[in-house]
Design brief:
Layout lengths: L1 H22 L4 H21 L10 H28 L2 H7 L3 H11 L7 H19 L6 H25 L8 H29 L8 H24 L2 H23 L5 H37 L15
Helix pairs in contact: 1-3, 1-9, 1-10, 2-3, 2-8, 2-9, 3-7, 3-8, 4-10, 5-7, 6-11
Amino acid sequence: MIGQWISLSCGLILFNKYILANYGFPYPLALTLMHMGFCSVLATGVIKGGFAKGIDIDWGTYFRAIVPIGVLYSVSLWTGNSAYIYLSVSFIQMLKALMPVLVFCVGCVMQTEKFSWRLMGNMSIITVGVMIASYGELRFNMIGFIFQISCLIFESTRLALIQILLQRRGLKLTPITSMYLVSPACFFSLLVPFVFIELPKISNDPNVTWSGGIFLANCLVAFGLNIAVYLLVGKTSALTMNVAGVIKDWLLIGLSVVLFQAPVSGLQIGGYLIAFGGVAFYNYNKIMEKQKQAALEAKSEDSLPLVDRGAGPSGTK
């Protein structure tokens, strides 16, 4: 299962890079729109067909809680895919090390994270490492850099909103129900800019390359990745996911060098190692905090009188 998730995740990233930068279809908005439309249709089929359990919410909750998350997610995907036109996959993976920093900063602003100087020091180490890696990038492109940083900002804001709009309402979404609810919101929020920004360009581009088989395969990989996440989350721990993510990041850096001849300097690797160490320390602390919290909750539950735990007067349920 872990191998399948790593393969699909790496496959989708490299597939998107190939389509946008090498295949002849430099239209990230159109590609993202296709992904969202395809996932919307298939997720609906999975839910309505009874292969996965859905979730019932009213339209008011949908527009207040789901649509804002969908809009942020769609813009995050759009800008993230746009970065593949200008930057190498290896450098993009290095920039993604900034994700904990932005989640922390946005979380402090939106009060989903608690500020601490210890965490701030950890975030500073990650930031310095990414700055060194960026300085060492041999094919640095400011437009691509802005796209990728924007992607991370939108994504970190989306994660904060999930806590505010969903978790505090008691709504828990699996990847399947997320696709079922969020993908249509993403699709329609991308449809309007696509009509005005990329559709005229595609219509007037004599060099655009189009193959239904290629794009169908790409959409199937995107949907398969979501299914793999759904299965992996239910069968593994957070530690396993983090370890798998580390393997995936280094694998993508290596594959980017081999498949796309992306140059990686020694200074860049050194900077990423610093950032990587900071991210690993951050993830370790997060896992330890969750384990400690779970232990305290279990201890608190064990200390309750039997009658408070739903037991009858004789101690039997």
